[in-house]
Predict the structure.
Amino acid sequence: MANTVDNRVLQVQNWLKENYSGKTGMPEVVTDGHTGNATMKALISALQIELGVSVDGVFGSEVMNKFITLYKNHPDQKTTKMQHLIYILQGGLFCKGVTGSQSFNGAFDTVTETAVKTFQSWANLSNKDGKVDAKLMKALLNTEAYVLVSDGSAKVQEFQKRLNNRYADKINEIIPCDGRYSRVINKAVIKAIQIEQGLTGKSVDGIWGPTTMAKCPTIKRYATISNKEFVYILQGMLYCYGYNPKGFDGGYGAGAENVVKEFQKFSALTADGIVGRSTWASLMVSYGDKNRKGTACDCSTRVTTARANTLKNNGVKIVGRYLTQESSTSEKAMVKSEITALKSAGLRVFPIYQAVGRNISYFSINAARRDARRAFNAANNLGYPKNTIIYFAVDYDVLVAHIPTILNYFRKINELFATADFGNNKYKIGVYAPRKVCTELCKNGLTTSSFVCDMSSGFTCNIGYLLPENWAFDQISTVSYGSGEAKIEIDNNIVSGKYTGVSLADFTETTVSQKDINRAIVGKAYEMLRGTIFDDYLENYSGELSIDKTYTIIDNSNCKIQIGIATGISAGKGKVKLNIVNGEFDSVSIKWLDQFSTEVASDKIGKEVVETLKHMTTVIENGAISFAVSVDNKQLRMEMDIQNYDFEYNNVDASFTTKLIVISKYDNNILNKAMEMLPDLSVEQVAYLCAVILGIAALASGVGEIATLLEALLTLLQMAMA
């Protein structure tokens, strides 16, 4: 059972805690009897302390250089330092679950030697002498497995063991033998190729460059192969990618040739069964051969008639263009004038939706709501026809642990696209992302097509993963074509043929309905509230906002928050009005904001309030924020009218007002005093009060912090009225 305590590991943890707790750099030792990152980091930290190097829990070059080879009957084995090193060794053996490693006594005895030899056998090292050098110690103190795991392949494990046997001493590294392909294995394989090519020293770096690719031999059936080790590597890599070359014997027969053809066909290579530079490259690195010329591209530059002809003359047939852009000066977003240019050149097109999205925190349910609306509106506005695939971007180094969050983001987009408000699946959903992300979305039925960001070869979810089954475009390099006004920089994309974008002839002129306008307004409101103190509440609200309705998005013992969105501009009730012109507050509003920032924003929540208001201004661009405060049954009620004056959708005026109502239910002496003062408050003081109520909304359940905030408010009010 996964939760069963391993008493041997617990023994190791207790020893670490007893001997190293409190020492500089030593992390807190968790005594739970479970092997994991924390325990291994603690063992490495203890090792660093004993070796007298900087302590960070990472087995780096300092440790490798200063490590002392451990073995039975070492002349210094009775010194305290040596005993502690052996304890750490024995701890590593325990954590690795090495059979027969029963000794935990700080003595390199026969039992310990036997356990070391067992681990050397697991890794299939050429020398199974029972001695522990730096690379063996490093292998013992990582979290990798050296036995076949449940989702591992026996053939991949065989390949791993062969790599260790032949290359471990040469590359000074012992790779895992768990039957799973990974980043570590990928780098070791490239080093093996470099060694077989005759490279030495720093040239054996595990980096796939032009020299390594150029020196790879061509392998084909019936040809004499001077170095069969290259065939072993080829067969091993095919097994890593899930292909079965019908043997792991260093021979290139019919079985290997046929699966090479399968791999080539799937990767959009020439399917001739000949393993040349491009095939080697596609096996070794996600972008493959950067010199391959694709027939598709994506670009963040506006496509004029001259640029469209440049693309056509360079073999491009399909162009990916974006539905959004970061600034008004950017050319990233496609505009309608491009339709004529692309159409005249006979090019096809596919849309990409990308907001910021550079970390996992972006991919929330609330973001999915906003992004679905923005993507649909933009595609619909441009006239993209039914069944167009929109590729939503996940453009960062995704960790495997992030994938469930990304799956939920796409589930929400799918849910929305299926509604009548989004044309009952008028558009299909694709993804631009690393390989594993694309694959997981495809497996879960959340995407129709994948656009793979293979150019980012170092991404965690690219290395060690096959192209997704539904891949349509594979981004491998950045190139420039043309000159002068016809020059254009593009990302070069390989095409699988599974999807080829849409014809510009199928684009339609769209008529703007009230439903379209309402959807755009709601999307803009979500965008305005994104990243503010209200975002979390919208995130947890399961319903979907619509026009001319009021929704309660939180209601607890401290606070009730309601939101409503209406077309047109409603007059704010309050005497506080902050005007916004060209994305900034006017001079009067800035004066108040500066004063509030000086007096209140030293508080964490005060800063959040200021950031909320600043964010709103940049999204609103032109409008106003009005505040009104009233007393209702010893409760403070704030109404905040957020007015967007000149918001347009598809050249139609879609100005609107978002009303936020915050009711503070928290009742104490401070709050009572604040309410007593209310009738006599000046405009500035009302603004102070509203800002604090926003702070209460931000905290919602933090009673103590709310009290502190109200105390600060009372002090300010008393000073203002003095």
Summary: The chain has four domains: 7-143, 188-284, 296-510, 526-721.
